[in-house]
Design a protein that fits this description.
The protein is mainly beta. The protein has helices at about 55, 255-260, and strands at about 1-5, 5, 25-30, 30-35, 40-45, 50, 70, 75, 85, 95, 105-110, 115-120, 125, 130-135, 145-150, 155-160, 165, 170-175, 190, 195-200, 205, 210-215, 225-230, 235-240, 245, 250, 265-270, 275-280, 285, 290-295, 310-315, 315-320, 325, 335-340. The chain has a two-stranded antiparallel ribbon. It has a two-stranded antiparallel sheet with strand order 3-4. It is rod-shaped and about 230 Å long. This is EGF-like domain-containing protein.
């Protein structure tokens, strides 16, 4: 500006800070001015100070386990979550959160770098912050097939069922029959899974607290023609004479075919159920095992004609007309005749 015919400097900074903005300082110069920024700012368009983001512009501005937070004109390096600084000039170290018992009472706390984890203990389920009892008994085959499962808080218990005992591999049946007093002296002990039974031996039945013999022959267990013989605790079947078989079945023996000479040579053999009969041929009669000739002439002259003579022969007889008589057409037996002309 002109003063007393002389040019003097204009201090632009006196008016509106010379146009410098946002924490910029106006510095007057001979014939000009400039805007200066404070540390942590950069001059934009010669008049505007803009914050420098040191967290982006600087390489690793903070230390280990620290995080960079940009501030207006500066930056800070606080410890990361899960870390703390023991002293102002010390590095950030891990916080052991497990010391404050942040997990559920039934969970295990595991400290990690900058954090921690909560894991439910065995027998419990959930996320560790909350833990609830696990019902192990709801799982299939958690106990032996012969054991009962009882759920407990954080655990479970397998108890062998009645009649079974615990072994290393599970539960095994107790053989109660090894105890000689399990049943009465006259009973038979039968071991069952988890139990036992007392019953009378085969062929016996319970009667007035005692085992008595069962007469199986009352139920006719044998073949209709067989003889049943009851024995203590059992029975036997026997085919009668003239039959063969085991008693449960009996078959008639055909003695006429099975025996070489069942009858006398002059007899015919006839098989009958369980036996056979020998029938002598016509003209013979039975005399014990023998067949002897019948003298038909001893009975009424063999029924010959009154004018005939009965002549006995082996196995038969014949009628012969007396002298002076001749046979008629009656088969020549002389049963009837006519008188001949006698000269």
């Amino acid at each position: 500006m002109l003063r007393d015919s002389k040019c003097v400097d204009i201090n632009e900074c006196l008016v509106d800070n010379g146009g410098c903005r946002n924490k910029a300082t106006c510095v007057n110069n001979q014939g000009s001015f400039s805007c200066l920024c404070q540390p942590g700012y950069v001059l934009i368009n010669r008049t505007l100070c803009q914050d420098i983001n040191e967290c982006k512009e600087l390489k690793n501005p903070c230390g280990v386990n620290e995080e960079c937070n940009n501030t207006d004109g500066a930056y800070q390096c606080p410890c990361r979550v899960g870390y703390y600084r023991p002293g102002s000039n010390m590095n950030c170290i891990d916080i052991d959160e497990c010391k404050d018992n942040p997990c559920h009472v039934h969970a295990t706390c595991i400290n990690t770098q900058g954090s921690y984890t909560c894991t439910c203990k065995s027998g419990f389920v959930a996320n560790g912050t909350q833990c609830v009892d696990a019902d192990e008994c709801s799982q299939k085959d958690i106990c032996h097939a012969r054991a009962n499962c009882t759920n407990l808080i954080g655990n479970f218990l397998c108890t062998c069922q009645e009649g079974f005992r615990a072994i290393s591999s599970g539960c095994e049946d107790i053989n109660e029959c090894k105890d000689t007093n399990a049943c009465r002296f006259d009973q038979v002990c039968k071991n069952l899974p988890g139990s036992y039974s007392c019953s009378c031996p085969l062929g016996y039945h319970e009667e007035k607290l005692a085992c008595v013999d069962t007469d199986e022959c009352k139920d006719s267990p044998c073949h209709p023609v067989a003889h049943c013989l009851n024995t203590p605790g059992s029975f036997s079947c026997h085919c009668p004479t003239g039959f063969n078989g085991n008693g449960s079945w009996c078959r008639d023996v055909d003695e006429c075919a099975a025996l070489s000479k069942p009858c006398h040579p002059l007899a015919h053999c006839h098989n009958t159920p369980g036996s056979f009969v020998c029938i002598c041929m016509p003209g013979f009669m039975s005399l014990g095992p023998l067949c002897v000739d019948i003298n038909e002439c001893n009975a009424m002259n063999g029924n010959c004609h009154s004018a005939a003579t009965c002549i006995n022969n082996v196995g038969g007889f014949k009628c012969s007309c007396n002298q002076g008589w001749k046979p008629t057409n009656d088969n020549g037996h002389g049963k009837e005749g006519s008188q001949s002309d006698y000269f």
